[in-house]
Amino acid sequence: MRLCLSTLAICVGLVTSSFAVTVAPLTFEQLVNQSAAVVFGRVVEVRSDFTDDRRAIQSVVTVEVLRGIKGRSGDTLSFTTPGGQAGRYLNVIPGAPVFSRGDLAVFFVSSRGARLPVTTGFTQGIFRVQRGAANQMIVNQKVPVPLTTFEANVRAIVDATR
To answer: What kind of architecture, by CATH, is found in domain 27-127?
Structure first.
């Protein structure tokens, strides 16, 4: 009996609260319309640090804007993603986008008032880009398309809502 109670006490002590992130799938039109900015760019810096309350780690991703597709953007754009490494602490968020210097992508970002923007729809707002045949830029999605076609699709949705 004593062993059972001790085991139960240890198990209860080891239980930690867990948080789940559920993101509703967005249509491409919703993704475009809910984004304050859409840019094609290259990751130039990823900086991770503790949040102000020191309860989590977030990464600030800085992107060199190679081409603005929607909204206003300067030469660079910074946004936050959950997770990262701060000192000896690593915080991995399943399903959160992870970036490295040099990554090419189309970034859909949503503003959050005075704070840095976030990617729209979590990972739904990231479309990785790579060089294809004949050095053409290809957007990776279910059916890969040339970057120029992808940009035209975004602009058509933006123009239709004006």
So the answer is: Beta Barrel (2.40)
Q: Could you give the CA distance from residue 21 to residue 1 in angstroms, rounded to a whole number?
A: 39
* Residue 100 φ/ψ, nearest 5 degrees: -130, 155
Position 100 pLDDT exceeds 50: yes
| Distance of alpha carbon 26 from the chain centroid | 14
| 37-to-10, 13, 56, 130 alpha-carbon distances in Å | 49, 45, 26, 21
Whether 95 and 123 have beta carbons less than 8 Å apart is answered as yes
- Is the torsion defined by CA of 56, 114, 20, 41 positive or negative? negative
| Residue 20, SS3 per DSSP | coil
Question: For 122, which DSSP code?
Answer: G
**How far is it, in rounded angstroms, from Cα 155 to Cα 70?**
7
Sign of the CA dihedral with 74 first, then 154, 99, and 111 last? positive
For residues 123 and 94, give the distance between their C-alpha atoms in angstroms, rounded to a whole number. Answer: 11
Has this prediction a pTM greater than 0.85? no
Q: Could you read off the pLDDT of 121-158 as tens digits, one per residue?
A: 989 999 999 998 888 999 998 899 999 999 999 999 99
